[in-house]
Write a structure and sequence with these properties.
The chain has ten helices and no strands. By secondary structure, it is mainly alpha-helical.
Amino acid sequence: MLLAHLQQPPSPAPAKAPAEDPGPAVELDAKDVLAAAERFTWAVAAPGVRHWPDGSDFLNIALSAVRPEEREGYIERLEAFVEEQRARLEELLRAYGPGSAPAAHGRYALIGQPETLVILERMESAPFLLRGRWEKALETVFLDDLGSAWGPGIRLSR
């Protein structure tokens, strides 16, 4: 039987399926994401009381932590996150936002910024990727303070 087996022609190799071309990665337009975040007026401070009139550095870092496969439909996912977390976001703004006792000491400066909604969504969805990108470009104190105020979850600090 061994001889008969050895004399048989080899099985053809399974045909490899052609690799699917995912196409070009969807780009996120920071202006569109920011406009979506600003629609949640109950979750952000009024423009005149925000700590940074331009939080684009924070937004760009947060958006860099959105993986290519997450980019399509990201604004809708951000909007769903904000709606799901409405009570928590309102409490965060009330307790730590502009005009609060903690904010009076210069801490929690990101709270109330529309960019913060993206940062918090990334903190929940890709905390270690966000931390890695943040550490390369910005002071971690802002992220640490925001994480502390946001509360339980995956700790981003070491």
